[in-house]
Amino acid sequence: MYPIDTLNEAHDEEPGVPSKSEIKREMLALQQLGERLTTLSAKQLARMPLSEAMQAALQEGKRIKSLNALRRHTRRLGKLLRHEALDSIRQVIDEIDSHHQASVSRFHSLERWRERLLDGGSDTFGEFLAEHPAADRQHLRQLIQAAQREREQERPPAAYRKLFKYLREVAGI
Length: 173
Fold this sequence. Notes:
The chain is mostly helical.
């Protein structure tokens, strides 16, 4: 019969050696990163320090249509990513995501301005002009009135869209 202490020692992992579960989690994270890289444009990928083999694999991945082949290719990308500068790649992806998030935030802000201008009075109009002094008062007022008429008559939102387009131009988005 073996003493209990010796059995526990036999099953304890050596310090510094990752467990199978940790290795699997790391591989899954690399596969997800590879999958994320396939969604980026060529211009965005050019900003990343990728090896030629990784760039070729990413180009190849854009041509694959079969789900099983895509799954195998994702595993391959994960393996190739083991030899890449992951910190630099993640940093560029974070920059891309933060830039995207900022543009979405500006877009939503303009949508709120559009609604406030349509629902509000001259106070809201004055606030917008104070924030965006380059806006043409007369043209903006005409667009607002046209969108309000359109809304009242329940017509398709053509003027509503034109107002948003003008707001984007004024805001520089």
